[in-house]
Every structure is written in structure tokens, then in C-alpha cells.
């Protein structure tokens, strides 16, 4: 008997949950392989992935309460910085934008600068940690990793995804020309998380 047959009614095995995890895995894979990609190609893909990711997350059903306290963190600070730097190298001068949807903005007399690369790396970190724990195939760990991901979505990375999408939209639909780089052929630019 398969695990999904044993727990057919559990929200972890719900169609919407599986679709969200699938899109999250696609996002993480794309971010890990994007080194050397041209800016327009990268931003165009992100402009499609981010809304889909947001939609799929919003459809995840209510999950059972948490049963364990410790989940494994898969993305180290070094790996996070590598992802952020890789994205920053692609986006270049378009990386920074003025942020208006931050709590600190209420108390600031000056504009707050945010970056697409940091927003996308924040989303990546949450999703990659969830996927790593999800791959354990342990129902309690899968459940708790999704609960954590949903909570972080509501409190943090959902807004990061939307902020990045707003900035990406602004870049994509400006009158600016893009200088395009190589397409995924340069394996040396890929971030390898399994051999770090």
C-alpha cells in the first residue's frame, strides 16, 4: 500500500498541495540553473512563475496542526548569498527599486531601497527548505514543512514575491533594451547545492 493510499484524505496529498509543491520545485530548479541567462529571458520566466506560485500557494488546503518542532534547514547563508548574487548578476542595474510596501516605510522620511534579487532569494529559501523537508516522505515532516511555508507566505515571502513581481513588471514593460547573456549553457554559473 502506498503512502498516499494510506493517508488519502490528508491535506499533504491534496491535488492543490501537490500542484503547489510542483510549482515550488520548478521555481527552485529555475533559480538554481539561471546562471548566465539573459535578463529578459530570466525576468519573463519570473513574471510567469511568481503569479502561478502565489496562486497555487493560496489554494493549499488547511493543514493539520504541527506535530514536530524541528525541521531541517537546507539553504545555508552561503547558498542564499550565491542565489542572490547570481540573480543580481542577471538583473544588473535593474535590481534595486524603491519599496513602498514595507512596515518601516511609515517611519521613514527617505525612500527604502529593495532588490529583486533579495526578494527572489527570500522566496527561494523558504521554498527550498520546504521541498527538502517534503522529500523525506514522512507525513509529519511534510505536514509541518507545509505549515511553516504557509505561515511564512502569509507573513513574509508572499509579499516578497509580489514586490519582486511589481519591480519585474516595471522593467519588462519599460522602453529599455536588454543585453542578453548565454542561455543555461554555462554550467559553471549554476549554483550546486548538493555539493556545497
Overview of this structure, please?
This protein is mainly alpha-helical. It has a single domain, classed as Protein of unknown function DUF5063 (Four Helix Bundle (Hemerythrin (Met), subunit A), Up-down Bundle), CATH 1.20.120. It is built from six helices and two strands, in the order ααααββαα. Strands 1-2 form a two-stranded antiparallel ribbon. The chain is elongated. The protein starts with a helix and ends in a 24-residue tail after the last helix. About 5% of the residues have low confidence.
Concise description?
With 196 residues, the chain is mostly helical. The protein contains six helices and two strands.
Descriptive tags:
mainly alpha, 2 strands, two-stranded antiparallel sheet, Four Helix Bundle (Hemerythrin (Met), subunit A), 196 residues, 6 helices, elongated
Write the topology of this structure.
Layout: H1 3-6, H2 15-33, H3 39-58, H4 77-91, E1 96-99, E2 112-115, H5 116-134, H6 139-172
Antiparallel strand pairs: 1-2
Helix pairs in contact: 2-3, 2-5, 3-6, 4-5, 5-6
Could you say what the CATH architecture is?
Up-down Bundle
Task: Give the domain tally.
Answer: 1
Number of helices: 6
**In angstroms, what separates the terminal alpha carbons?**
36 Å
Amino acid at each position: 500500500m502506498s503512502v498516499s493510499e494510506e493517508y488519502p484524505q490528508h491535506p499533504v496529498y491534496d491535488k492543490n498541495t501537490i500542484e503547489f509543491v510542483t510549482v515550488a520545485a520548478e521555481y527552485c530548479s529555475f533559480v538554481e540553473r539561471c546562471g548566465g541567462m539573459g535578463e529578459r529571458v530570466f525576468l519573463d520566466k519570473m513574471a510567469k512563475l511568481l503569479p502561478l506560485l502565489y496562486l497555487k500557494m493560496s489554494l493549499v488546503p488547511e493543514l493539520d496542526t504541527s506535530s514536530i518542532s524541528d525541521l531541517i534547514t537546507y539553504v545555508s547563508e552561503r547558498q542564499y548569498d550565491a542565489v542572490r548574487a547570481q540573480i543580481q548578476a542577471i538583473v544588473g542595474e535593474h535590481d534595486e527599486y524603491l519599496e513602498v510596501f514595507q512596515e518601516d516605510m511609515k517611519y521613514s522620511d527617505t525612500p527604502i531601497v529593495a532588490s529583486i534579487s533579495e526578494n527572489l532569494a527570500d522566496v527561494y529559501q523558504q521554498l527550498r527548505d520546504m521541498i527538502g523537508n517534503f522529500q523525506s516522505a514522512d507525513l509529519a515532516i511534510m505536514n509541518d514543512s507545509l505549515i511553516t511555508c504557509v505561515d511564512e507566505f502569509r507573513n513574509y515571502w508572499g509579499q516578497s514575491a509580489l514586490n519582486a513581481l511589481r519591480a519585474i513588471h516595471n522593467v519588462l514593460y519599460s522602453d529599455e533594451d536588454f543585453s542578453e547573456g548565454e542561455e543555461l549553457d554555462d554550467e559553471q554559473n549554476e549554483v550546486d547545492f548538493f555539493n556545497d
